[in-house]
Design brief:
The protein is an alpha+beta fold. Helices cover 38% and strands 19% of the residues. Strand 13 and strand 14 form a beta hairpin.
């Protein structure tokens, strides 16, 4: 005989189906995900809950949802009602996230609550029942979680600054012509670190030493060619590539990589830190020189100080801040002299900013021409934009490749097609989408997917209205894309905007290797 529902004991009730979310950051591993799961399982047992799915972000910072594929996936499952559970179990508020804006943490919990999914913090001393007391406790805990990261960041920065001033290198690669040497706490050399290798003992430190003789000679040749032969960075990069010389990342030289060699004080032997910063997952910024942390003559220099200062003088002269009117007056001079103006004539003129400087200052060469009343009688705007895009495309590819390599991913690129191979497992294509306006004045972009190469993922980079800056990114998986060409506007519905991201952090998280424990 079946027992009436009213007469059933609590133990006879079917268990509540629950999901578990666990996270462990690389910065602080006080609680492993397995320890979190022990507490969560004990909590579930006491509450007559059955854990049916586990979402795990291992080695992920809690500062942002970007890069946390499991949390993002869980929220997406909840919002799209792809769940087979009615609550989510988390170790504590800090494991949900150390968001610098406490409202962001509350927002993700609210999305779950709105979908009828309750969030339980299993190790907290308060019941997350929606009462005023629990709301106050959660607000305080969220603030404490964010503040912990801020305090830790400040402590780490102070420690790094002290090590810089003691003459030790902090992070990053050595650079072409230099190598990283591992030393112990007494300063005794222990051995050279290869690209991608890290120190394994906490008390060990890293210094910079001259690299192979042939690389050192190439660095000196770069400086002498720049200073004594008046070659610019593009010309030097071309000469290096023609000689078959590769950078320290085994890539072809560009203007940027040559400029880095010509301006970095490490070639003098100086240890300089904090030239740029990106604290707490915030926007990457360039810091003014008075904010830099330095230790002069910390390493053995490979460039003479006189030669280095001569190179800086040339660069400083070239980067002179021209006023708009001064630039336009120079442009009028070219028109008077030649009767016409072109990018080539601008670049060949003495004592004049480059054509790219005019593009950056006025948006395009055509805009600059119009300001002095010159009409080339040809609509160059489309050509100008395409020229900008062709220049930007390899820069973005190089940035993505460098970031993937820094994360430890294995990457290669087909030089003919620019198809990127990641970890020998999947392929990526990067396309730039030009900003356009419809006749009605609304924004439009066209994404052309390469149906011939069939990359597993297409990174569509949407440019902003200047066609210079980046507006956002779309990560388009081949499995979900059945069109060769996509026409997009400001908003495109969930079927496309679900793949929209402000940064590429999520993509890098996809490519990041994670350790898989072998079953006994």
């Amino acid at each position: 005989m079946n027992t009436p529902a009213a007469a059933q004991s609590p133990g006879d009730q079917p268990p509540i189906r629950a999901a578990a979310y666990v996270r462990m950051s690389t910065e602080h591993q006080q609680y492993s995900t397995s320890n979190q799961m022990d507490v969560i399982r004990e909590y579930a047992t006491r509450r007559n809950m059955e854990i049916v799915v586990v979402y795990s972000d291992e080695g992920k910072s809690g500062l942002s949802i970007q890069g946390r594929a499991s949390l993002s996936g869980m929220i997406a499952d909840v919002e799209n009602k792809r769940t087979n559970f009615s609550c989510i179990l988390v170790y504590d508020v800090s494991r949900w996230g150390r968001f610098q804006d406490a409202d962001e943490s509350a927002y993700y919990e609210y999305l779950c609550k709105r979908a009828g999914i309750a969030v339980h913090y299993c190790a907290e001393q308060f019941e997350n029942d929606g009462s005023n007391i629990s709301s106050i406790f959660k607000s305080v805990k969220r603030g404490m979680a964010g503040e912990y990261s801020r305090e830790l960041s400040a402590k780490v920065f102070r420690g790094a600054c002290r090590l810089i001033q003691l003459g030790f290198k902090q992070g990053g690669t050595a650079g072409f012509g230099l190598r990283r040497m591992l030393v112990d706490h007494t300063g005794q050399k222990k051995g050279m670190l290869k690209m991608g290798e890290h120190k394994s003992i906490q008390t060990d430190r890293v210094i910079l030493v001259p690299g192979p003789d042939e690389e050192v000679e190439i660095v000196r040749w770069v400086y002498e060619t720049f200073v004594k032969e008046d070659k610019n960075e593009w010309e030097i990069a071309k000469l290096l590539n023609e000689r078959g010389i590769l950078t320290d990342f085994a890539r072809a030289w560009t203007r940027g990589t040559v400029h880095e060699v010509l301006t970095n004080e490490k070639y003098l032997g100086h240890n300089v830190y904090h030239r740029t910063s990106c604290k707490l997952k915030q926007k990457h910024v360039e810091n003014p020189p008075d904010k830099w942390i330095r230790a002069n003559n910390a390493f053995v220099g490979i460039i003479d100080a006189t030669l280095f200062l001569a190179a800086q003088g040339i660069i400083l002269t070239r980067s002179r801040k021209w006023s708009d009117e001064e630039m336009l007056e120079k442009l009028r001079g070219i028109l008077t002299q030649h009767g016409r103006i072109s990018g080539i004539l601008i670049d060949e003129a003495e004592d004049l900013p480059s054509s790219s400087a005019f593009r950056n200052r006025f948006g395009s060469l055509v805009s600059a021409y119009r300001l002095i009343g010159y009409d080339p009688e040809i609509d160059y705007s489309f050509i100008e934009i395409n020229r900008q895009i062709r220049k930007k495309h390899p820069e973005i590819i190089a940035e993505v490749l460098e970031k993937l390599r820094q994360m430890g991913s294995s990457v290669s690129i087909d030089e003919k097609t620019d198809l990127i191979f990641v970890n020998e497992e999947w392929t990526v294509s990067i396309v730039l989408c030009r900003y356009q306006q419809s006749e009605a004045g609304t924004a439009r972009w066209v994404i052309r997917l390469d149906e011939g190469l069939k990359p597993d993922i297409t990174i569509a980079v949407r440019l902003d209205e200047t066609n210079v800056g980046i507006r956002d990114y779309y990560l388009l998986p081949a499995l979900d894309m059945s069109w060769g060409k996509l026409r997009m506007g400001e908003e495109n519905g969930v079927y496309l905007d679900a793949y929209q991201f402000e940064t590429l952090d999520y993509f890098y998280g996809m490519a990041e290797r994670c350790r898989v424990e072998e079953a006994a």
